[in-house]
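Continuing the batch. This is chain 6 of the set; chains 1 through 5 are on the previous pages. Same settings as before, nothing changed between runs. Recording input and output for traceability.
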Amino acid sequence: MTAPSAWPWIVGLVFLLSALLTGVMRLYALHHGLMDRPNSRSSHIVTTPRGGGLAFVLVYLSALFWAQQLSLPGVEQVGPLFSVLLYGGGLVAVIGFVDDHRHVSAWMRLLVHGFAAGLAVWVLGTPQMTLGGWLVPQGWWLSLLFIVALVWLLNLYNFMDGIDAIASLQAISVLCGVTLILILNGVAMVSLLWLILLISGVAGFLLWNWPPAKIFMGDAASGFLGFSLGVFACYSVQHYPISLWSWLILLGLFVVDASWTLVVRMLNGEKWHQPHAKHAYQILTRKRQALCEKQGLPPESARARAHLWVVLSELGVNLLWLTPMAWLASVYSDYGVAILILAFVPLLIAEWCLGAGK
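Output for chain 6:
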């Protein structure tokens, strides 16, 4: 069996191992009392094990390490990317794992996240940016901007992991969208296996996280996903025919919801760093759950139905609106900012209509 023909088997193995290890993580969480108990901010009503996403993180990082050691085709040219994911991503996962088990101060998490983001920018460099056809000058300030953006995306992903399957399905949707855009733009699939392997790993976890979830992702995996997506964007923009604006468009549902909610809460004088349940997806979930309960469904069934409706609705937005817009931004990169604004307008209107952040 040649190396390229072995890749489908490797992708399948990553999926299988991720699904199996998630089951093991569920037993671990039950045995060690690693449970997410409902409170006034929760979108669930049943105590549920958490930390299961560590399974796909471990499987994915192991697959990267193994592929790197064997120098498989499609791997040698992405060595720096693998190093950042292994060391920077691994560090983010470790601090998240500790936080899942015992409280870690916000400053300690920020320090670790900043170090991992700085490592990524130092190793990978900063991509060139264009605004309306004008090239943005490179400099230390641009590197700092990308470090801040990576830290924000990392934490944003954690903020948005609040209902069953939302973080998993969003990651799969974004990664599939990027893969499709790159293939349409002439990139061979064998060169994109660093994307496809993560899709496979997250899909294995999604079997357990699908509504009603049998286990939640946890901070270790949500932080790792946010970090990885930012790193992928930083790397791919420099080496493949895709625009940074395409990545931002594909991440639009999470970026707009988290950013809008944060700004509104800060303008209202609230403590922005405190947990809350004012994101648009949480408001939608509560509205849908109330409607299901009015139709006679018991609370737990109504909750699962509401979660499923919200995540599938967001998937539809990604597939039918954001992915085509992201492809346009990759083809017409000089107009990327204008296309991004156009893509975000309906999302911003939805945030305003739902009263997110208030």
